[in-house]
Amino acid sequence: MDLNKFRELVKRREDIENEINENLNFLKKPENKNIGMDGKLVDAEGFPRNDIDIYSIRVARNKIICLKNDYLDVNKEIEEYLHTVHNSQPAIRVERNRMGNVNGNTATLISDVTNGNHIHGLDTKQEQTELTIEELVEMAKRNVFAEVDEIVENSPSHKAGLRVNDHIFQFGDVKKEEKDNNTNVDMLKLISNFMKNNPSKIEIKIVRENKIYVCNIFPEKTSNGLYIGCHLTPT
């Protein structure tokens, strides 16, 4: 299964969850007497109730049952894909974030560690040239190769201040060079190789809301390799 198929499955799972919730909310409406999945459709004498729309309730209940089965099937495919990823690239553990864009500790804003209005270039051939923060941000944007699309709460990435939707232009020693022809997918493979060196600290440079931040992640050692608790996708 390729990454695009995986994304389709995740989107399908989210759609199923939303549809289940819509039908559950329908069953909880006042006009349906908050009947839910288990409320009786007949009165005390065994006759169909005349104070609710029995047909619509039955349709909603049946839809929920079918959707739950679909959810299990999709979830199984996702878990199989994640298992394959973990085995082939144990250095990067991928987990789904159900907490939304959770906030961890604060990442360091690049302007907070500089003096005046200028800072030095980001490890490029312009390293000795002073650039304004605005120029530096534009240069960083051109070198972005990955986006954070999932964060696990209380993981090393979360504690370091990394957030969903952060754009990465440097991950430890991995960064784009003008002389190479690496695609953004290739850059993620380089990250995987970098992680196999078991770094005790990873400095990650990101672009967030037109500002540059630096996050220092301290990976946790597990039986499957280093765990940082985030998922990256190529931009």
TrEMBL record:
Pfam families given in the database record: Nas2_N
BP term (GO), one: proteasome regulatory particle assembly
Keyword Secreted appears in the UniProt entry: no
Keyword list, A-Z: Chaperone, Proteasome
Residues in Nas2 N-terminal domain copies: 7-86
GO cellular component entries: cytoplasm; nucleus; proteasome complex
Superkingdom of origin: Eukaryota
Keyword match Secreted: no
PANTHER family: 26S PROTEASOME NON-ATPASE REGULATORY SUBUNIT 9
Name recorded for this polypeptide: 26S proteasome non-ATPase regulatory subunit 9, putative
Gene: PocGH01_08030700
